[in-house]
C-alpha cells in the first residue's frame, strides 16, 4: 500500500494518508506529503485539497521509532510551511486525534475540520519537549494566546467541540468525514480565503497574565511547560520568523535534555507494561461479572472501578449494616464524580443499580472474578477464601488485595490454587493507576493474563510483582522512610527533608505524607512482627506513636497541626521526644538530601531485581510513578539513579 493516495473529483483532491497504526509522521510520510503539495499545486484540475487519514485516527504525532534520533529532511517545520504556502488551500479533515506534529500539519492547512468525538492537542510537554513545528507560534495566531497556553502548557488534548469553541477548528462535522469535508472545501472556495495562519495578527498579553500562567504550569524540576510558555510569549510579542527560531532552538535543546530522556523512558515503559512477553499467546479468561469481598476503603474503590468499567458487581460484607455502609462508600465515589461533572445523576443511579450488596456468598456463583479486600488478618482472609471455595465456580479467578500478608498463606487450603492471584490496588483504588499483580507458583498463565486484561479494562497500569514483604512498592517505601529517618537521626531537620523531596517533584515529603496517612499502620505492623519474635529495631516513628502522635488525625505526628488546618508546623514536642536519638543539627543541601533518598529507593529496587521480584528496572519505575507520586519527568528511581551514575562517570 502506498502511504498516500489521491482522488480528485469536482476540483477537490482528497489525499488519504495510510501509515498504520496511527499515521505517525515518519520520514516517508513527510516526504510523501511534500511531494503531494508540489504535485497538486501543479495540477490545474485541483482547486482545493482535503487531507484525511485511513484507519482509526488522523496523524497522532511523531513516529516513536524516530524518537531521540536526528530527523532527516524534509523537517516538519518546513513541511508545515510548505503546506501553508501551497497555491491550493488544504483542509485538514480530522478523526480520532490530531496530536503534536499531527496538529501542526493541521495548523499549516488553511482550514481545520473534525469529526464529532475527535480530539486535538499538543502533548509535547509530556515528553519533556515543546512543539517543534510551529505549535507555539501558529496556535496563538490561530486561536489567541489564552487558548494556546491552555493547549501547549498543559499538554492535554481537547475534544473537537471544545476545539471549535477555542477557535482551533473551523467546523465540527458528523457523518461521512471525507464527504462532509469535501462539501466544506467547495463552500469555502466560494468566498475569499482567510489569511494563512502565520500571517494572522496576535494580541500580546499582560505581565500579570504570564505570571499567572507560569504559576499554573510550574512543577518542580519540570522545565518543558515553562519553556513552552517562554516560546508562546515570544510568539505573541515578536515577528513570526523570530518566534519560529526561538521555538526551534528550544525544541532542539529540550530534545537532548535529561527530562526528555526520562519521559521517553516512561513512555516506552508504559507502552510495554500491559503486554509482558511471557504472556504472548496466552488467552485471558472472559470476565463479565465481578465480586468484591469487603466494602471498606479498598473494597469500595475496587468495586467502583469495576462498575466504572461496566462490570456488574456483587459486594459481600459481614452483616446488613456493613453491607449498607459498603454500598454508601461506593455511592460516595460516584457522587464525587457527579460533583466534578464527570457523571450525571442518571449515570450514578445506573452505576449503583449494577451493584448487589449482600452477605450471601451464594450470590457469587456466576462471578468470573472475585477480589477480596477484608481486614489484613490471615484468619479473616482464610475464612473468606473457604467461603469462596464453597460458592465460586472452580474456574473463577480469586484474588486477594493484601498489602503485606503472604498470598500463599492465604490460599494454602484453596482447592484449584491455579485460579488464585494477588491483585494489589492502591488507595483510592478508583483513582490510583498502579496495580501490582502477584502470581504464586501455582497461578495458571491464563489467570495471570486475566489479571493483565482486567488492569487494561479498569484503566490501570499493571506491574507483575513477586512475593516478598510489601511486594515492590511498599518494600521500597519502607526503605525510603528508613533512610529519611536515618537523615533525621543524623541531625537533618525533618522540614528540610520534606522540602527537599517536594523540590525534587513529589507532592509531599516522607514525613508530611506519613502524617496524612497515619503513622499507626506501619507501627502496628512492626509491633506484629515483634510479637512474632522478629527483631525489629525501635524506629523514630514508633517513639511518636507511643506518645500518641499518629499524624494529622491526632493533631500531631512528625509535625503539629492546628485544628481545621493541614499546614505542618515544626513540633517542639517531637524535638523533645526524639532528643536522645538525634545527633547535633547539621545542614545538608536539599539536592543532596533528595539524591540520597532516591538513591536508597534505587538500591532497594536493585535488591528487588536481584531477587526476581520485578521483571526489570522500568517496571519498578512505573510502580513508583503510578503508585507513589514519583515525578514522571525524573523517570522513576531506577532511571534517575542510573542517569545520575552515568553523569558522575562522564
Ligand atoms: P477497611 O477496614 O477499610 O475495610 C475492610 C472491610 O472488610 C470492612 O468494611 C469490613 O467490614 C470488611 N470485612 C471484614 N471481614 C469481613 C468478612 N469476613 N467478610 C466480609 N467483609 C469483611 O480496610 P481497607 O483499608 O479497605 O483494607 C482492606 C485490604 O486491602 C487489606 O488487606 C489491606 O491490607 C489492603 N490494602 C489497603 C490499602 C489502603 O491504603 N488502605 C491499600 C492496598 C491494599
UniProtKB/TrEMBL annotation:
Record's keyword terms, sorted: Fatty acid metabolism, Isomerase, Lipid degradation, Lipid metabolism, Lyase, Multifunctional enzyme, NAD, Oxidoreductase, Peroxisome
Domain 3-hydroxyacyl-CoA dehydrogenase NAD binding positions: 289-465
CDD domains recorded: crotonase-like
Domain 3-hydroxyacyl-CoA dehydrogenase C-terminal intervals: 470-561
Protein name: 3-hydroxyacyl-CoA dehydrogenase NAD-binding domain-containing protein
Keyword NAD: yes
Reactions this protein catalyses: a (3S)-3-hydroxyacyl-CoA + NAD(+) = a 3-oxoacyl-CoA + NADH + H(+)
Pathway the protein contributes to: Lipid metabolism; fatty acid beta-oxidation
Intracellular or extracellular location(s): Peroxisome
Organism, as annotated: Acidimangrovimonas pyrenivorans
InterPro entries: 3-OHacyl-CoA_DH_NAD-bd (IPR006176), 3HC_DH_C (IPR006108), 6-PGluconate_DH-like_C_sf (IPR008927), ClpP/crotonase-like_dom_sf (IPR029045), Enoyl-CoA_hydra/iso (IPR001753), NAD(P)-bd_dom_sf (IPR036291)
A Pfam family this chain is assigned to: ECH_1
Amino acid at each position: 500500500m502506498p502511504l498516500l493516495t489521491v482522488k480528485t473529483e469536482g476540483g477537490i483532491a482528497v489525499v488519504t494518508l495510510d501509515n498504520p497504526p496511527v499515521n505517525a509522521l515518519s520520514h516517508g510520510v513527510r516526504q510523501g506529503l511534500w511531494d503531494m503539495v508540489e504535485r497538486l499545486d501543479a495540477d490545474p484540475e485541483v482547486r482545493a485539497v482535503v487531507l484525511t487519514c485511513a484507519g482509526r485516527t488522523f496523524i497522532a504525532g511523531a513516529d516513536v521509532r524516530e524518537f531521540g534520533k536526528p530527523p532527516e529532511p524534509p523537517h516538519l517545520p518546513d513541511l508545515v510551511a510548505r503546506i501553508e504556502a501551497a497555491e491550493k488551500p488544504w483542509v485538514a479533515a480530522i478523526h480520532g486525534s490530531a496530536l503534536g506534529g499531527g496538529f501542526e500539519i493541521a495548523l499549516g492547512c488553511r482550514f481545520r475540520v473534525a469529526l464529532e468525538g475527535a480530539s486535538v492537542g499538543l502533548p509535547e510537554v509530556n515528553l519533556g519537549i515543546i512543539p517543534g513545528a510551529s505549535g507555539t507560534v501558529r496556535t496563538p495566531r490561530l486561536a489567541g494566546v489564552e487558548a494556546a497556553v491552555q493547549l501547549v502548557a498543559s499538554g492535554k488534548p481537547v475534544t473537537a467541540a471544545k476545539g471549535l469553541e477555542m477557535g482551533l477548528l473551523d467546523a465540527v462535522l458528523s457523518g461521512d468525514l471525507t464527504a462532509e469535508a469535501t462539501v466544506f472545501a467547495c463552500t469555502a472556495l466560494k468566498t475569499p480565503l482567510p489569511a494563512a495562519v502565520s500571517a494572522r495578527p496576535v494580541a500580546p498579553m499582560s505581565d500579570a497574565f504570564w505570571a499567572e500562567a507560569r504559576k499554573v504550569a510550574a512543577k518542580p524540576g519540570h522545565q518543558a511547560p515553562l519553556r513552552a510558555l517562554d516560546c508562546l510569549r515570544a510568539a505573541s510579542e515578536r515577528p513570526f520568523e523570530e518566534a519560529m527560531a526561538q521555538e526551534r532552538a528550544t525544541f532542539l535543546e529540550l530534545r537532548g535534555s535529561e527530562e526528555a530522556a526520562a519521559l521517553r523512558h516512561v513512555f516506552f515503559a508504559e507502552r510495554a507494561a500491559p503486554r509482558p512477553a511471557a504472556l504472548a499467546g496466552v488467552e485471558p479468561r472472559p470476565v463479565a461479572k465481578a465480586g468484591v469481598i469487603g466494602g471498606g476503603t479498598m473494597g469500595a474503590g475496587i468495586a467502583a472501578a469495576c462498575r466504572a468499567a461496566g462490570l456488574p458487581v456483587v459486594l459481600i460484607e459481614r452483616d446488613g449494616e456493613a453491607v449498607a455502609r459498603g454500598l454508601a462508600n461506593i455511592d460516595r465515589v460516584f457522587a464525587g464524580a457527579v460533583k466534578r461533572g464527570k457523571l450525571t445523576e442518571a449515570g450514578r443511579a445506573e452505576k449503583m443499580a449494577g451493584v448487589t450488596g449482600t452477605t450471601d456468598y451464594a450470590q457469587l456463583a456466576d462471578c468470573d472474578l472475585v477480589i477480596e479486600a477484608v481486614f489484613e488478618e490471615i484468619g479473616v482472609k482464610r475464612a473468606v477464601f473457604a467461603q469462596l471455595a464453597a460458592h465460586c465456580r472452580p474456574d473463577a479467578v480469586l484474588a486477594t488485595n493484601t498489602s503485606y500478608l503472604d498470598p500463599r498463606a492465604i490460599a494454602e487450603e484453596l482447592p484449584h490454587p491455579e485460579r488464585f492471584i494477588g491483585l494489589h490496588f492502591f488507595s483510592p483504588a478508583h483513582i490510583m493507576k498502579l496495580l501490582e499483580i502477584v502470581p504464586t507458583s501455582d497461578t495458571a498463565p491464563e489467570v495471570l493474563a486475566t489479571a493483565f486484561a482486567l488492569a487494561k479494562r479498569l484503566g490501570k497500569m499493571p506491574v507483575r510483582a513477586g512475593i516478598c514483604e510489601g511486594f515492590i512498592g511498599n518494600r521500597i517505601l519502607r526503605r525510603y522512610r528508613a533512610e529519611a529517618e536515618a537523615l533525621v537521626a543524623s541531625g537533618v531537620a525533618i522540614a528540610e527533608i520534606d522540602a527537599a523531596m517536594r523540590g525534587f517533584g513529589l507532592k509531599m515529603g516522607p514525613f508530611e505524607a506519613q502524617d496524612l496517612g497515619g503513622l499507626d499502620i506501619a507501627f502496628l505492623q512492626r509491633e506484629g512482627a515483634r510479637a512474632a519474635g522478629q527483631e525489629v529495631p525501635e524506629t523514630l516513628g514508633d517513639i511518636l506513636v507511643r506518645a500518641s502522635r499518629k499524624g494529622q488525625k491526632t493533631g500531631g505526628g512528625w509535625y503539629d497541626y492546628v485544628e481545621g488546618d493541614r499546614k505542618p508546623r515544626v513540633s517542639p514536642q517531637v524535638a523533645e521526644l526524639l532528643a536522645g536519638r538525634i545527633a547535633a543539627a547539621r545542614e545538608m543541601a536539599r539536592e543532596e538530601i533528595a539524591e540520597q533518598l532516591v538513591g536508597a529507593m534505587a538500591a532497594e529496587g536493585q535488591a528487588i531485581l536481584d531477587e526476581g521480584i520485578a521483571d526489570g528496572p522500568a517496571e519498578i519505575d512505573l510502580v513508583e510513578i503510578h503508585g507513589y507520586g514519583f515525578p514522571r519527568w525524573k523517570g522513576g528511581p531506577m532511571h534517575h539513579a542510573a542517569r545520575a551514575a552515568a553523569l558522575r562517570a562522564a
